[in-house]
What does this fold into?
Amino acid sequence: MKVLAIDAATDILSVAVLTESGLSEASMDLGLRHAESLMGLVDACMGGAGLARSELGLVACSRGPGSFTGLRIGMAASKGIAAGLGIPWISVPTIDALAWGYDWFDGAVAPIVDGKKGRVYSAIYVRGSRATDWLDVPLAKLAALLDTYPEALVTGPDAELFRGLAAERSGFRVDERGRFPAGSAIARLGLESFLRAGPGSPDEGPLYLRPVEAEEPAP
It folds into this structure.
C-alpha cells in the first residue's frame, strides 16, 4: 500500500510518501508557515516518489499534541486529500512518531515539543513502549519523572530546551539529531495502525492537552 503522510504538528513541516519499494520525504524547518508551503511539499514528495495521487491507498497525519494551528492545517489537508481520492485516512500521535526508532535505547526516551508558556508536550517510552500518559508539564516536572530512570535520552524538535537540566544529571543526554522530520515515522506507524485496526474516523479531531488558545477563559 502506498501511504502519504503529513506532519504539521511542530515548526518542522514534513511530508513523506511510503511505497513498497522505498520512501520519499521532504521537509521545511522555517517556523509555523505551514499553510503556504504544505501542498507544494506534498507535490514535491509525490514527484520524488514518481507517483500520481490516484495511486495512493492511505493518507496519515500527525494528531497531536503540538501547535494548535499546525494540527488543524495538517489534519484538514490530509482529510481533504483522502476524501477527494476516496481512500482511508488515519492519524498518529505526534509524540509516538517522535519516539519511533528508539527501541534500541536501554533507558527512558522522552521526545519534547515546546508547548509554550514554560511547558512541554512529551511522554516517556521504554524499549519502544509508552510508559506514561501524554504529558503537558514544566521541564522541571519532566526531569523529575525521568530521574526515576538510570539513563534517559531526550529527543524531538525542542530537545535543546532540556540541555541545562541534562547537564546536571548523570546518565542523561540530549539527542544531537533530535530535530528531525517525522513524516516517515508517521507513514510507517499509520500503515501499521491501519492494517491492525482499520481507518480513523472522519470526525476525529486533533489531540489537544489543553484548551485551544482562543477558547481559554479570560483572566
DSSP finds six helices and 13 strands in the chain.
